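Q: My labmate handed me this sequence with no annotations at all. I'd like to see what the chain might look like in three dimensions before we decide whether it's worth expressing. Could you predict it?
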Amino acid sequence: MHRAVGPVFRSVRKMATSGAEPQVLIQYVVLRKDLSQAPLSWPAGALVAQACHAATAALHVHREHPHTAAYLQELGRMRKVVLEASDETVLRELAQTLHQRDIDHVLWLEQPENVATCLALRPYPKEEVSQYLKKFRLFK
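A: Here is what I predict for the chain of 140 residues:
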């Protein structure tokens, strides 16, 4: 497995030093902070899994978009920003706003409970989506 990844990283380094800087794309992930706090107190691993599910789903659902393709072609340059939403209501409100503004995203629903735990956007240039995310802090 490590051998298969090595050539990709070498290729990324070559592209990055070729003089033409590619557009910086960021995948934003918004995770519910209340899941980590009492009374819910989810373990860290469960929270990380929710973020991974949402990020992977957003990449898969929007895999045909040129930004997603470019993001995945440069594995060594991938950027993710993980933000926190205070609770499920705030997360669902963000999803609704993004939907109304035609911002591609996936709202991850944990099953079988159908509880919204995390939201991930497909990769975007920061300036295209930062206005919708500026009220959210980095996840701590």
